[in-house]
Specification:
single chain, binds Double cubane cluster, four-stranded parallel beta sheet, 423 residues, alpha/beta, 20 helices
Length: 423
């Protein structure tokens, strides 16, 4: 394994504390992932990425910076990667998914806030995540209250640009988001020193669409009836890595995985025994290394076959129209695609409920688990209307709330076990 200590020192990281994180991750990954049987061979790539998670990709990003490229750290799937890529930059997702970072985040934030926000700020201020350290700037967005206030704190420490997200989906909101994307493009041009051209943006739109198509192929394979060719944990890992990998490589590796899964379906190779209950998980994103809920579900006699969340279908569904050949037209096409995302930050947000019902059918699920992170009011408030819509369709639903600690693991296991039993 390559030694990255000099790189981490150069990134001004807190090596001593970072060593503690590096010491626990391999065991957690081994217990959760490597203990699975009959995994697709193409998961070896993702296992390798995890084994070098704070080394191999940050080293690539540093190489990009040496060649004049800039790295943009983001926290939401609404930030259009295409604009950054078109200006020779790279995007890296920064949402924190580990309890390890939470105490550090609580030094600058109230403790009764969502763990994703606390972990993200903890990773920044604790200097224990190379992706935060390597980023030239952060890009925030006005989605939930917690995140938009957190950007003020982050912004006092590192250059941070905040995109003003509409809260509704009227035509004037789509127009407003088009304007926000145009403003963001000016910011990216000024940071990268590169002028955005329709040719470069067109190429970036095609590249990110290819990535979406590849990820969608893996999910398409998860719809197979009578066969579950990949575990939910493995599909989730692929999605989590997609947030910081190079987009062309991400598409290539997802396509290889999809090829294998499609062959598995033909050959009838399933990771789980026949009759295993199929679960759709919906709710707040599961940032790496948050594998807790999937692990509990998949060691309780069920399998996760779909995630209706930003670390799932919301990341790749809907393509950007590739036909526009002016920047104005491309910004409009980007806005139209991104505004189809049914995040609970919108009001009203009937689209998410319709999506979950549609996907429950498409993925042939036996039940839905609607899980949000503690203190995420947006997703919590949508629980009753989602449950009612699923009930009307005869689809069982279990509502859960959790955080990054293991304190509730046994309680969750009991509830998930009872739910699976009654399906
Ligand atoms: S588009 S889901 S990535 S905002 S869990 S920090 S909402 S309190 S993450 Fe999200 Fe963009 Fe929406 Fe997706 Fe706030 Fe809730 Fe925490 Fe959340």
């Amino acid at each position: 394994m390559t030694d990255y200590r000099q790189m981490w020192t150069d990134l001004d990281m807190d090596l001593e504390t970072h060593d503690q994180l590096c010491a626990v991750l391999p065991a957690a990954f081994g217990d959760t992932y490597l203990s699975q049987e009959n995994r697709p061979e193409n998961m070896a790539f993702y296992d390798f990425v995890v084994s070098e998670i704070h080394g191999v990709r940050p080293a690539e990003l540093i190489e990009l910076q040496k060649e004049g490229g800039k790295v943009f750290g983001t926290f939401c799937v609404f930030v259009p990667d295409e604009v950054v890529v078109a200006c020779g930059g790279a995007v890296t997702g920064l949402c924190g998914g580990s309890q390890f970072w939470v105490p550090e985040g609580e030094k600058v934030l109230p403790s009764d806030m969502c763990p994703l926000v606390k972990a993200s700020l903890g990773a920044h201020f604790g200097k224990t995540c190379p992706y935060f350290s390597v980023a030239d700037m952060y890009v925030g967005e006005t989605t939930c209250d917690g995140k938009k206030k957190a950007y003020e704190i982050l912004g006092a420490d590192k250059r941070t640009y905040v995109m003003d997200m509409p809260q509704m989906k009227r035509p004037k909101d789509i127009e407003k988001w088009t304007g926000e994307i145009a403003d963001f493009a000016h910011e990216v041009e000024s940071v990268t020193g590169r002028a955005l051209t329709p040719e470069a943006l067109g190429a970036a739109i095609r590249l990110i669409n290819d990535k979406r198509r590849a990820l969608a192929r893996v999910f398409e394979a998860r719809k197979a009836e009578g066969c579950i060719p990949i575990s939910g944990k493995d599909a989730l890992l692929m999605m989590q890595i997609a947030f910081f990998d190079d987009p062309a490589r991400c598409a290539e590796m997802a396509n290889k995985l999809a090829d294998e899964l499609e062959q598995r379906i033909v050959d009838g190779v399933s990771v789980f025994p026949a009759g295993t209950k199929r679960i759709l998980v919906t709710g707040t994103p599961l940032a790496i290394p948050n594998w807790k809920l999937h692990h509990i579900i998949e060691t309780s006699g069920a399998a996760v076959v779909c995630e209706e969340m930003c670390t799932g279908t919301r990341y790749f569904e809907n393509l950007v129209d590739e036909s526009a050949d002016t920047l104005e037209g491309q910004f409009q096409a980007l806005s139209e695609r991104y505004m189809k995302n049914n995040c609970a930050c919108f009001t009203p947000n009937p689209g998410r409920i319709a999506d979950v019902v549609r996907m429950a059918r498409e993925y042939h699920v036996d039940g839905v688990i609607d899980a949000n992170l503690k203190f995420c009011t947006l997703y919590d408030v949508e629980k009753p209307s989602l449950a009612a819509a699923l009930e009307a369709e005869g689809i069982p639903c279990l509502a859960l709330e959790t955080d990054y600690t293991d304190n509730d693991a046994e309680q969750l296991r009991t509830r998930v076990g009872a739910f699976v039993e009654m399906l």
